[in-house]
Amino acid sequence: MTITAEDITRSAFAEGGEAIPADLRHRIDITHEDEAVNAIVKAINTNVIPDVYVRSGEVCEVCEIDDGEGPRLVIRPVDADRLRLLLAEHTYCYRSKTIKTEAGSKTIETSGLPAVSTGRAVLSRTSWPGLNLLAGVIGMPIIRPDGTVLATPGYDSATRLYYQPALAVGPIPDQPTLAEVSEARMFVFDYVLTDFCWDSDASKANYFAALMTPILRRFIGGLPPFILISAATRGSGKSLLTEIMKAAYGIHMTPWVRREEEFKKKITSLFQDTSEPVIVFDNVEPFDTISHGSLSMLLTSTKWSERILGASNMFTALNDRLWAATGNNLSVGGDVASRSVLTRLDPRMERPEERSGFAIDDLWSWLGEEANRADLLRSLLILARAWIADGAEKDTTRRMRNFTSWAQAMGGLIAYHGLPDFLANLDELTTGSDDEETSTAAFILKWFSKYGTAPQRATALVDSARVDNFGGTLVDPWDGTFPSTYKDGKNIPFTAKGLGKFLAARRDRIFAGHVLRADLDKKSKVWSYRVLPHDEEADQ
Questions:
Q1: Which alpha helices (H) appear in 156-200, and where do they start and end?
Q2: Topology adopted by domain 178-432
Q3: pLDDT tens-digit map of 190-225
Q4: Which helix (H) or strand (E) is 519 found in, with range?
Q5: Which sequence spans correspond to the domains of the chain?
Q6: In which domain of life is the source organism classified (predicted)?
Q7: For 73-109, what is each residue's pLDDT tens digit?
Q8: Distances (CA, A) of 50 to 71, 121, 240
Q9: What gap in Å lies between CA 78 and CA 61, rounded to an integer?
Q10: Cα 264-270-276 angle, rounded to 5 deg
């Protein structure tokens, strides 16, 4: 390879030496601001400034940072100050002026940098046809949409991803042999995952689907569901399940956020500040119900948009992450329940941390070894390629609301590798674990037992729910079924207005075989509500 003078001077500048001499750099006249803006835009679009990309209309860079857990890639937008530095590195900016001399006049050049305001004007542009579109950064090979393996470091135009290997996994065969597939299956299922105390075959199959999702996401398309990694008690091993994901391709752990508004801000910051393919809300408390409306929206949206705090512009990011939560006996509610997949551990013993006799004696330490992490990732890639090379058959019988493409692809993959009962435990989330649905059904049944089909107004219902004190004994006429609102960690009784909104959001829905109907009094403009047996309505 021939090393040019420009290579030498670039290297010197990068190491703290002198900048590239002016006669080797692209010249930009910044005398007049309007011409400077156009010239800088042209320089960016013609790759005079190398290694910059465009993401969501913004010029950005791929940077390597180390926050104490080893180096990782992040995407950073180029701001006006950073643009000035890049211009100093890669261009010669100058201002010219004509001066009088004894011989007449001459034009002189003075080196300099454009004003910050000029940089802002340049970066306000949202169309950059000369730059590569950047979808994200990855540290592991993945399967492209055409089924091939992205294994070459650098920018990949097929996926618009920038790949910098974190592990040396070696070449992945396009057509793995039976011996290679058998070895990979044994390594993953009978070695790494063999000692986990799954509560069912479904939990094991669901976890394997989650483990494979970041590798296969571009190939299968669509959005993945929310992954719940739950356990019956502490010490069951749920943290080790996330550690396996971290070892293979990296995850970002973050605490659960209870307040809805704060949760939305957290999601935005995660998109801005992290690049890991998996985001895990770690150790959600048993008394917290995972039911944020913004989480439900996130799980079914290909993009995330949120107004930036203190600014008028919106932040928009591609929703390219797998979202998950860990905790003991996780509870989900609202729409999140039907958008989640459960993997659960149950050791069926009081002190699971005292177990011994594992295939891998100390899995934490084992996963800390780079060679073991590379073997794990390589095995997962071989399992993916084997399925694809054999036709990537899907399980077309699978249906899962917004996640059917994921469920059908993963169903096919899991059946191919011999794991039973994929998604067989979905009912645990959509019925027993959905506290909101269950509590509303109990409320509706109690209502019907008290009032039958007679119409009731919200004010009368609120009055009927007052707890009375009879001789020192508190008597609840609704036996604890009357709904309340949850705010700042407390259950607060509904006002009539609040109850009206609660009922309006559930009108015409069926709960435990009963339907809630609403009628508007045209004179008073007040709504009343009735509970009717659903089968009686069907007969009418």
A1: 178-187
A2: Rossmann fold (3.40.50)
A3: 999 999 999 999 999 999 999 999 999 999 999 999
A4: strand 514-520
A5: 5-134, 178-432, 435-539
A6: Bacteria
A7: 889 999 999 999 999 999 999 999 888 887 778 888 8
A8: 22, 20, 41
A9: 7
A10: 145
